[in-house]
């Protein structure tokens, strides 16, 4: 696996909430993940795919390159962000690509300092009402921060924890006889996400897993939420994530790893005219091999 010279996990913020996670639930989730991934190449293959996704984000956005990002490169990134696929073409029509690129520049400028992580993510959506057409924008910002700096920023998306809805991975891992009735007093904040990552990091280390912990953690959380979709998902979720025999299907979709047709390079991202966006040349061979 990759990971040489990489830090293990995100450090929790000060005044972090106490998260009461269930060890048995975590262990069952990990065992199921390992078993489910085996027929399609094993867990290493999925961790490698996340490493390559991160490499793509870094190649396009880090070291000041966000200001020079082209629209094609932007669409390449969005193809790997599941909630952005259906909405991004409409957003480009609404505000123009230059506006979106400027938001990326502001999001990443000074992002080595995580003390303003929540404000930084919120500011990405400034000027928009977070209605059905725009509520995915904070998730896009969260993916950009995480996959450009996986050791610094946890993945802060709604499916991991949405305090307003009281749903997400955090609830599925909570220590309670009936997690649906548990009261979880944790905000949707950097401190909560970072603490969750630290807890999962400690669990994985206890299971003998030491490398690529940010990506292994992503994979474990996605698999936990995939189980929620399979077991208790409502009508909308089942329509969005149709049940299939492949036990890793929903896990891949949560992380955007189902983005590319491995033969054609066409992605699940639809352009305004209804055609599929085709992934650019940057890293396509490697990404096709793993996704």
Automatic annotation (TrEMBL):
Organism placement in taxonomy: Bacteria, Pseudomonadati, Pseudomonadota, Alphaproteobacteria, Rhodobacterales
Protein name, entry field: Uncharacterized protein
Species this protein is from: Mesobacterium hydrothermale
